[in-house]
Amino acid sequence: RVLSLARRGLWLYTHPLLKLLFLPQRCRCKFFSLTETPEDYTIMLDEEGFKELPPSEFMQVADSTWLVLSVVSNGRAPSGCQATGVTKIARSVIVPLAEHHVSVLMLSTYQTDFILVRERDLPVVIHTLAGEFDIYKEERGECVPVTCDDVSNGFLKPKPATSPTLHPVQSPQTRFCVLTVAPDTLPAIATMLIDVLFYSHSPPREAGAGSQDLDSITFFAFSLIEGYISIVMDAETQKRFPSNLLLTSSSGELWRMVRIGGQPLGFDECGIVAQIAEPLAAADISAYYISTFNFDHALV
């Protein structure tokens, strides 16, 4: 599920969010991601986690149910090594899906990149990618091969090419760090994380204050997926954490953001990720990509 929480309604969700952040064994949630932007909080989580969140006027849930694809090389995910982000799968996955009019959401983490597709688009996704990849689905913890025959014949022919919408981009001056922490050290930074996520807010910006010369931007992303933790925070916020507990790539480099969209993008438009990822891949530039409920964010 993909949903948006209004900033002014965060108080209502503090308890379930703390449970999802720090006590995943209590709610059997295996996929949880929370991203704070100036507008709202975007949450992507599995059905078990979704049960923890009470419906309210502050929560807006995307209509579709989404499935998570991850691309692994040689049959296994990289263990703890830093992904080069979305550009390594741009040509083989993202561009072909855009050409077949499949709308995707991206969630890059420290460990890997996840592509979210609508459940109803799965037949098209499998047909599109079966030539390049061995495709497996997870059933009761086991990976089972998927063949095109397993899929109902919902194959869609590509629609006539329409030129994609061009979206404005902004690049705030804020510099970001992409980090991970070992799960057993999470308790040591818990109070800090709670403070950053729930208490140290700048007042929400007025809608329409999206001027092009943004000096700084509120952006914080936390994901806990299959036991792996990934955090994106700005360099100033990082200084508040004990440096020996946060793990970064050996170069420890900082990242800048390109924020895509002048008004909310919606979930039906295809090719936004491809428009950004393909030219970066062609120039051999690593990028992390995080889709949120209203806008997309590439870190380079």
TrEMBL record:
The keyword Ubl conjugation applies. Residues 1-58 form the CASTOR1 N-terminal domain. Residues 167-250 form the Cytosolic arginine sensor for mTORC1 subunit 1/2 ACT-like domain. Residues 62-129, 251-300 form the CASTOR ACT domain. SUPFAM superfamilies: ACT-like (SSF55021). Keywords: Cytoplasm, Phosphoprotein, Ubl conjugation. One of its GO terms (molecular function) is identical protein binding. It comes from the Eukaryota. One of its GO terms (biological process) is negative regulation of TORC1 signaling. Belongs to the GATS family. Forms homodimers and heterodimers with CASTOR2. Interacts with the GATOR2 complex which is composed of MIOS, SEC13, SEH1L, WDR24 and WDR59; the interaction is negatively regulated by arginine. Interacts with TM4SF5; the interaction is positively regulated by leucine and is negatively regulated by arginine. Functions as an intracellular arginine sensor within the amino acid-sensing branch of the TORC1 signaling pathway. As a homodimer or a heterodimer with CASTOR2, binds and inhibits the GATOR subcomplex GATOR2 and thereby mTORC1. Binding of arginine to CASTOR1 allosterically disrupts the interaction of CASTOR1-containing dimers with GATOR2 which can in turn activate mTORC1 and the TORC1 signaling pathway. This is Cytosolic arginine sensor for mTORC1 subunit 1. It comes from Nipponia nippon.
